[in-house]
Write a structure and sequence with these properties.
Elements (H helix, E strand, L loop, with lengths): L7 H14 L4 H12 L3 H8 L4 H14 L12 H9 L14 H8 L1 H7 L2
Helix pairs in contact: 2-3, 4-5
Length: 119
Amino acid sequence: MVYARTSLRGERRELHERMRSAGMGYRQIAAEFARVYHLRPRPAWREAYGWTLQEAAVRINSYRGEIGVDPGGFCGMTSAHLSEYENWPGNRDVPADRKLTLGALAGLAGLPLAFHLAT
């Protein structure tokens, strides 16, 4: 009888834990996630830190408030928007719905620093 594969989320969590316990850094983990799961850089780094989309969105909003980009929290990142940004431009001939703006790109460009400050 054929059995269903372990959940992808659980599989990724297990790989993350094994690699961290082996002393591997986030860069190595992100590279492995990109290789094994065919992830783009943004989701590979998020997965390397073991964050869900919601956790990453909360951290992004906190970081943007700390550096003064959005001190009032009026333009918060949501997990849905982050997912669209991580997957843009998509795998189709026509780019995905939400195109990255220069402001969004600038905000996402600072995220590696936000990721490192969070550890």
